[in-house]
Specification:
The structure is a single chain. 59% of the residues lie in helices and 0% in strands. By secondary structure, it is mainly α.
Length: 280
Amino acid sequence: MLANIESNEILFRLFSFISLFLLFAFAEWKKPKRQQKIPKIKRWINNLGIMILNSLLLRALFPFASAGFAFWCASEKMGLFHQLSLPSWLEIILSIIALDGIIWLQHLLFHKVPILGRFHAVHHTDLELDITSGTRFHPVEMLISMMIKFASIALLGAPVIAVILFEVILNGMALFNHSNFALPLFIDKPLRRFFVTPDMHRIHHSVSIEEQNSNFGFNLSVWDRVFNTYKEAPEKGHESMILGVHSIRDEKDVIWISGLLKRPFKKRSKVKSARKIRTP
């Protein structure tokens, strides 16, 4: 049973990821929000490369991923929902909302705790923003995230189907809200009342510390509104705002996988280099 859940989850998540990736890639190509200066092929190879590395590492360290762990928790009657008598549909909805809130809090902690911030900076050092930016995370951050996710599933007693749906939603929304797609304002404005849009999340990737400390959400926008971290628009506008980390702009640190893996263990300082990427 556990093996069936795992195999089905992998196929479902892979199909969902590829489908959404192609959809948002087409949207970026058809109607880009910002003109990009760095060759896409170079960024995509490295961003997707670190994603594949993370996937292999997590699979090796956690043979049974989130859904398998949720199944085990259910068999042991572990977690809050196993102590309550709620309808299954309500448990699923509440689990997805709660897990989303935990991810929001985790993201906030990765910005507020310096040692965690060193690993999360790998995500922020991307000088452009597109669908592959949503896959670009340091392996250590992914390991910490997985442990937090396991602890959350155990605490909640989240149903297996809720965990699978949450994973698909989280991955899909990460692709969507990092995409370089010019979502029309008449769609963006009402949509972001409930969900994080590309224009909303892009602000979080500004070099401005004030703007980085806003819009931490990946899926539901309610958390930033409730905890007063919501920002409507960037000061310089979306087309002119500078993305990335101000002190880390050397090509070997912000593009190549080797640099991304080593970056958290280096001193953060301005690097003068002939290969330093020029941005506005």
